[in-house]
Specification:
single chain, two-stranded antiparallel sheet, 2 strands, 62% helix
């Protein structure tokens, strides 16, 4: 029963567990590795997985977004390991490699399953988790967050704009997987990311007004709009979102709905033009 529930929870990147201690309840490296693998697959564009299953495995690595997904996880693993050593929490290979990799994949795919108290790894790890929750995994998957694709569009567009500052007459386009993206699509992505950040700021500020500590408030807002479900501080390991007052729960619930429906779908309801039509 537990295996079936966690299989559903992992591939859907839902993160629900039948145990209060989540996957950590089994204290098994084997279980952690298997769950990590399938969380990773849950964060990959399902169209790519389908193509790979029909024999076109090379298309996975040809995808620029998939390669970026791999690179981000790899870089984050190195930084997590450095932080763990710096905080003298490295005791076994499981503590040093398996647990941080599990948490990185769980966070970037918005699954939210946990295996240990990551807060003991230091504030630097919490900051990195903010980044992972914001980035998210690939579009076309069940993961939340802003999505790796949009972040790639943003980085390439920023690079082009910096180059234009030096060469004003230069003409650049944003290319992903060899295809040129239209300016309209790039502008929509930038607008989406700006709205995403603004909603996190508003959610975090509102939570601080009801007595939630600053870092915990913004972490919770970040976690909910990205549909990750992880908690830190008062909502972290040993605690839960139950401690949040009712008004705060309504705010976080709204952020979860907005994040799951990709912002514009919900925010358009607050437009006068929508109701006029």
């Amino acid at each position: 029963f537990d295996a079936l529930c966690h299989a559903f929870s992992t591939m859907s990147t839902g993160g629900f567990s039948t145990r209060d201690a989540s996957v950590g309840a089994w204290n098994s490296m084997y279980v952690k590795i298997i769950v990590t693998l399938f969380m990773f697959l849950g964060g990959v564009n399902f169209a790519l997985l389908f193509r790979a299953s029909t024999g076109h495995v090379r298309e996975l690595w040809r995808s620029e977004v998939f390669r970026t997904y791999i690179y981000v996880i790899g870089v984050m693993l190195v930084l997590f390991v450095v932080a763990i050593f710096a905080n003298k929490e490295a005791h076994t290979i499981e503590d040093t490699i398996v647990d941080p990799l599990f948490l990185i994949v769980s966070t970037i795919t918005s699954t939210g399953l946990t295996v240990s108290n990551f807060e003991k790894w230091g504030a630097f790890v919490i900051a990195l988790m903010f980044v992972l929750m914001f980035i998210g995994a690939c579009a076309g998957s069940t993961s939340g967050g802003a999505k790796m694709d949009r972040m790639l569009f943003l980085v390439k567009n920023v690079r082009n704009e910096i180059h234009r500052c030096i060469h004003p007459n230069a003409i650049h386009s944003v290319r992903v997987n060899g295809k040129v993206l239209s300016p309209e699509l790039v502008n929509k992505v930038i607008a989406f990311l700006c709205l995403y950040v603004m909603l996190i700021m508003v959610g975090g500020i509102v939570l601080t007004t009801i007595g939630i500590p600053l870092v915990d408030a913004f972490f919770s807002a970040f976690s909910c709009i990205g549909n990750t479900g992880l908690g830190a501080g008062v909502t972290g390991y040993g605690g839960s979102y139950d401690i949040i007052p009712d008004f705060g729960k309504w705010v976080l619930a709204l952020l979860m709905v907005i994040g799951r429906l990709e912002l514009f779908t919900v925010l358009i309801l607050f437009s006068r033009d929508f109701w006029r039509k």
